UniProtKB/TrEMBL annotation:
Protein name (record): phosphoglycolate phosphatase
The entry's keywords: Hydrolase
A molecular-function term among this protein's GO annotations: hydrolase activity
Provenance organism: Tropicimonas omnivorans
Family membership: Belongs to the HAD-like hydrolase superfamily. CbbY/CbbZ/Gph/YieH family.
InterPro entries: HAD-like_hydrolase_sf, HAD-like_sf, HAD-SF_hydro_IA, HAD_sf, PGP-like_dom2
Catalytic function, reaction form: 2-phosphoglycolate + H2O = glycolate + phosphate
Pathway stated in the Swiss-Prot or TrEMBL entry: Organic acid metabolism; glycolate biosynthesis; glycolate from 2-phosphoglycolate: step 1/1
Pfam families: Hydrolase
Coiled-coil region list: none
EC number: 3.1.3.18
Length: 222
């Protein structure tokens, strides 16, 4: 079976405000003002450690990876408590998922968010059951851009390894697809905007309404 495998943060859902709030909460506990703003959404979807590094840079004092590693569990703790305060699915996402199903195309998720947090978020948003698989950062011994994460997501969604389309929003998604030898579609409505065009994916998605036709074109007939 053919599958479409989605990234989560910045692709299916706009999670940036809740991620940034969790990072800022860490620094408030350390006695600082919020170092991150909504303008840092592109950093937010790159992960917790990326946000912490940027925040430490902005504070201007010396820091090292040990400090980042110490704050990372605190960031996850804060994030879990407010995981869906501001997060919303992008328009048309679930309509596209339903249409893919009607066309006999399986759907799954491959994210570098820890699996438990991804499960929690999708359940809170009421859409977990719509996806045949969910592979998170710690589901396997590897994570994106290692292609095995994508392969497992495709197989658990009932598909074949090399008949998958990865839908994402960052260079990590593009690199994962290339390593797997499968096509990639990058959304232009995520935090990276149209800058993803520079990554030369097989397709650009301006809106989710176009995804089923893009999938048919890139994956071929059933």
């Amino acid at each position: 079976m053919r599958t479409v495998i989605f990234d989560l943060d910045g692709t299916l859902a706009d999670t940036s405000k809740d991620l940034l709030e969790a990072a800022n909460a860490c620094f408030r506990e350390l006695g600082h003002d919020d170092p991150l703003t909504d303008a840092d959404s592109a950093v937010a979807v790159r992960g917790g450690r990326a946000m912490l590094r940027l925040a430490f840079d902005r504070l201007g004092g010396p820091w090292d990876e040990g400090m980042v590693n110490r704050e990372y569990p605190e960031l996850l703790r804060h994030y879990e408590t407010r995981i869906d305060t501001h997060t919303v699915l992008y328009p048309g996402a679930m309509e596209a998922v339903a249409e893919l199903g009607r066309r006999g195309i399986g759907v799954g998720i491959c994210t570098n968010k820890p699996e438990a947090l991804a499960q929690l978020l999708l359940s809170r948003l009421g859409v977990r059951d719509a996806f045949g698989s969910l592979v998170g950062a710690d589901t396997l011994a590897v994570r994106k851009p290692d292609p095995e994460a994508l392969f497992v997501a495709a197989e658990r969604a009932g598909g074949l390894r090399h008949r998958a389309l990865l839908v994402g929003d960052t260079v990590t998604d593009r690199d994962t697809a290339r390593a797997a030898g499968v096509p990639c579609a990058l959304v232009t409505f995520g935090p990276g905007g149209r800058s993803v065009e520079e990554l030369e994916p097989e397709a650009l998605l301006e809106r989710f309404e176009d995804l089923p036709d893009v999938a048919e074109r890139l994956l071929g007939a059933a």
